[in-house]
């Protein structure tokens, strides 16, 4: 039997992205004092610090370290109930740490505050789709730059309405194509000093299925997981936008791949027929005028098919970047192999508490605090977390390690 000085509960606090020194995890924080007061039982708090970097690689490494921390805590206090409270992406770290079944059964409960639960799927972009995309990049930007240079040299007074239309189309295409290039270059520059991210990217390329399995969230169920959300959460706004783009991506993915599968079957035949037709028509010298028209028509047909696929692939590429930008640099750069999207709830069942009263929001405004970070200062959140902990303590939530 434990002595009266031993804690009845051990609570491990896991901070979110970019917050290794999160104030709510400190000894004198309002969250810790209020939670301890409402629990009414001896509590020992443990701060778990990780890099806080916004990337799959850093979250996985943090999960492995948290797993070791929890095992050590269970070994030190085998008769106490052990809980985890995590904020934002710290909730994903906590879930990854509990993928080990024995450890998952030993932990009494996990509370995720404003966590965007990440779902990962191995669905590589067809390599054949990259050819028309590269072709489009090889045609439009040079054509747009050449047109602008020509206009600057010759002036706009000699342009016909058709020339003006073509000029603006080429210029718009050139600018639009620079958007994903700029996003990729920005992600590359941010990832350049981080060797861990590059190591994770190599794994995404060489073993995407294994990485997807490693990033799959475990099923904890409502008896072990409480998800707490707050209205007006800025991260939730980004989550909704990410969900919208993810929906567009999923809707565009299937018809695009089906269209490419169909074109892939006829594309090579079309090129073969084009070569045969050009060779035959060039041999018929007396039909020079007709030959030129037919050849141009055939080339136009091939070019049109290529540009249609390239345009659709470009749309998917932009959606991939928009969806993955909030998930981290490696998620963004590896999105051609692995698709990641965020959901307000984890897989399967979970208990969810949503703060929708205006008092917490106005309080956050008075303190000039992000609502995403105001969740752990909300009195209702502390009350629900304490009540949920007490339910597990009363029902024998202790698990011997």
Order of neighbouring strands in the sheet with most strands: 2-1-3-4-6-8
**C-alpha termini separation:** 15 Å
Count every helix, treating DSSP H or I runs of 4 or more residues as helices.
14
CATH hierarchy class name of the domain at 9-118 and 214-234 and 342-394: Alpha Beta
Task: Specify the oligomeric state.
Answer: single chain
CATH architecture field of the domain at 9-118 and 214-234 and 342-394: 3-Layer(aba) Sandwich
Overall pLDDT: 80
Q: In CATH terms, what is the fold-level topology of the domain at 9-118 and 214-234 and 342-394?
A: Rossmann fold
Count of distinct strands: 8
**What is Rg?**
28 Å
CATH superfamily of the domain at 9-118 and 214-234 and 342-394: Alpha/Beta hydrolase fold, catalytic domain
Describe it for me?
The chain has 401 residues and is of the alpha/beta class. It has a domain at 9-118 and 214-234 and 342-394: Rossmann fold (3-Layer(aba) Sandwich), CATH 3.40.50. Helix content is 60%, strand content 12%. The chain contains 14 helices and eight strands. The protein has helices at 30-39, 56-76, 90-97, 101-106, 130-154, 161-191, 195-206, 208-214, 234-283, 288-324, 329-333, 358-366, 371-374, 379-394, and strands at residues 9-14, 43-48, 81-87, 109-113, 117-122, 225-230, 338-343, 351-355. It has a six-stranded parallel sheet with strand order 2-1-3-4-6-8, with helices on both faces.
């Amino acid at each position: 039997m434990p002595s009266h000085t031993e804690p009845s509960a051990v609570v491990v606090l896991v901070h979110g992205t970019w917050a290794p020194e999160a104030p709510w995890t400190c000894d004198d924080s309002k969250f810790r004092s209020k939670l301890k007061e409402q629990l009414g039982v001896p509590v020992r708090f443990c701060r778990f610090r990780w890099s806080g970097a916004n990337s799959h690689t850093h979250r996985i490494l943090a999960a492995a370290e948290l797993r070791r921390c929890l095992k050590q805590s269970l070994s030190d206090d085998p008769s106490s109930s052990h809980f985890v409270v995590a904020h934002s992406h710290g909730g994903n770290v906590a879930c990854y740490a509990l993928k080990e079944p024995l450890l998952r059964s030993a932990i009494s409960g996990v509370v995720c505050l404003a966590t965007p639960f990440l779902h990962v799927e191995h669905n590589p972009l067809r390599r054949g789709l990259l050819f028309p995309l590269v072709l489009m990049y090889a045609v439009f930007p040079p054509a747009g730059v050449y047109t602008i240079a020509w206009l600057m040299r010759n002036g706009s007074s000699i342009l016909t309405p058709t020339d003006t239309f073509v000029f603006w189309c080429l210029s718009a295409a050139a600018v639009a194509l620079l958007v994903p290039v700029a996003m990729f270059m920005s992600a590359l520059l941010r990832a350049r000093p981080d060797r861990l991210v590059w190591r994770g990217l190599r794994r995404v390329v060489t073993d995407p299925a294994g990485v997807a399995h490693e990033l799959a969230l475990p099923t904890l169920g409502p008896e072990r997981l409480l998800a707490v959300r707050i209205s007006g959460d800025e991260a939730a706004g980004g989550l909704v936008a990410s969900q919208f783009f993810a929906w567009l991506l999923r809707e565009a993915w299937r018809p695009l791949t089906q269209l490419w599968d169909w074109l892939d079957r006829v594309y090579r035949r079309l090129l073969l027929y084009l070569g045969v037709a050009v060779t035959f028509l060039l041999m018929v010298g007396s039909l020079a005028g007709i030959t030129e028209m037919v050849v141009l028509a055939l080339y136009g047909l091939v070019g049109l098919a290529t540009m249609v696929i390239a345009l659709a692939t470009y749309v998917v590429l932009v959606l991939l970047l928009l969806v993955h930008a909030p998930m981290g640099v490696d998620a963004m750069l590896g999105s051609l192999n692995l698709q990641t999207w965020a959901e307000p709830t984890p897989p399967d069942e979970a208990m969810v508490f949503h703060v929708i009263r205006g008092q917490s929001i106005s309080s956050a405004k008075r303190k000039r605090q992000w609502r995403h970070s105001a969740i752990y200062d909300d009195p209702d959140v502390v009350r629900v977390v304490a009540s949920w902990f007490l339910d597990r303590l009363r029902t024998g939530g202790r698990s011997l390690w």
